Amino acid sequence: MKKINVLLLGDGPTSLTALRSLYEFCNVVGVLRAESASDPVRDYAAKHDIPVWSLGGLNELPAIIATRQPNAVVISSFNRIIPPDVLRLSLFINVHYSPLPEYRGRANVNWALINGENTAAISIHLVSGGLDDGNILFQERILITPSDTAQSLYERLNAIQERELGPAVDRAVRGDSGVAQDHSAATYGCSRIPEDGEIDWTMSSLAIDRLVRALSPPFPGAFTHLGHRRLVVARAQPNNDAPKYKGCVPGRVVARSTHEGWVDVLTGAGILRLFEIISDSGTISPASSIITSTRATLGLSRLNLLRLISDLETRVATLEAMLHINAR
Questions:
Q1: Which one of 8, 44, 82, 115 has the lowest number of neighbouring Cβ atoms within 10 Å?
Q2: pLDDT range class, residue 278, cuts 50, 70, 90
Q3: How close are the terminal C-alpha atoms of the chain, in Å?
Q4: Helices (H), 144-281
Q5: Taking the CA of residue 164 as centre, how many other CA atoms within 13 Å lie in the half-sphere pointing to its CB?
Q6: Predicted confidence band at 227 (pLDDT cuts at 50, 70, 90)?
Q7: In the chain, what are the helix, strand and coil shares in percent, each to the nearest 5?
Q8: Entry pTM
Q9: How far is 156 from 102, CA to CA, in rounded Å?
């Protein structure tokens, strides 16, 4: 049976396994990807003589479709919305890492961890006019373990994509219309920005642990402050064997081990043990080498902010006085 022709739109972390799956089961006529001097997707495409274009704007897409004549256009990690007039030019198929119709939208793997979901999922679906609302061609869930990070979930979901994407696209081109979603059950995840990763120490140790695992590298990271110094928590876990505190100041450091490198921090419910911290320089260090006192409190309190403002006002006043003297 002759292989179908497909065009891949992919900018992000799922694009490589998408390309490998499509190459195995289809004839890939091209890849559209963000500009980059070199990356694994471009390297793989070059090895297999697959052309790669850097898409400047979606207005360029119709001409590429007209030239390459794909039977289907596959989207995997491509964050631009395809307009309806372009969708009419070919069969569009999208890969979405959530159990659709749940978690339509953005940052779905991260949200699944943050929200304490039991499972994450991959859905391969037809693209229609709405947000992630087309018929489902394939779906599979995976269990989220207490040690999973967003990266480890992506790796497992990418493996499923590599196994299933090519066959699903082939079936769709040959007439599989998929299964309609239950739109009444739809939920959504909003986009996330790095500032959303600030740790609120009044949350439980379980909730903060999920936030850390959801945002650990290569994502921007869950962060806090020691004084005015920003610290990213790279690795942590709830300390279930710690003493129980009736008197509790969330964010207060209550124990540390110089030898083992950990620091215990009170939360709104329980204690979180911090193992690794990423400083502003990007260096990963044992938590106890950065947080050196059990009298420290993590997080920006209003008192700290007022002190910083007062210090800044004093410095500005001193500078103005010096400028005034020099101007005489």
A1: 115
A2: very high
A3: 90
A4: 150-173, 205-215
A5: 20
A6: confident
A7: 35, 25, 40
A8: 0.89
A9: 19
Element (H, E) at 284: strand 284-286
pLDDT of 244 > 70? The answer is: yes
Q: What is the DSSP string of 58-108?
A: GGGHHHHHHHH--SEEEEES--SPPPHHHHTTSEEEEEESS-TTTTEES-H
Tokens linked to 213: 């695992």
Rounded to an integer, the average pLDDT of 79-102 is 93
- For the record, the structure tokens of 84 come out as 């309806």
Q: Specify the 3-state DSSP secondary structure of 30.
A: strand
The string of DSSP codes covering 127-160 is --SSTT-SPEEEEEEEEPPTT--HHHHHHHHHHH
Contact 136, 100 (CB under 8 A): yes
Q: How far is the C-alpha of 277 from the C-alpha of 290, rounded, in Å? A: 7
Q: Sign of the CA dihedral 211, 214, 216, 221? A: negative
At residue 253 the predicted structure's pLDDT band, cuts being 50, 70 and 90, is very high
**CB-count burial class (<10 Å; 0-12, 13-18, 19+) for 6:** buried
Segment 289-315 shows an average pLDDT of: 82
Angle, CA 12 vertex, CA 8 and CA 14 arms, to 5°: 70
Determine the Cα–Cα distance for residues 38 and 257; give it in Å rounded to an integer.
43
**pLDDT for position 35:** 76
Domains observed in the chain: 5-189 (3.40.50.170), 194-300 (3.10.25.10)
Instruction: Identify the weakest region by mean pLDDT among 148-157, 215-224, 260-269, 300-309.
Output: 300-309
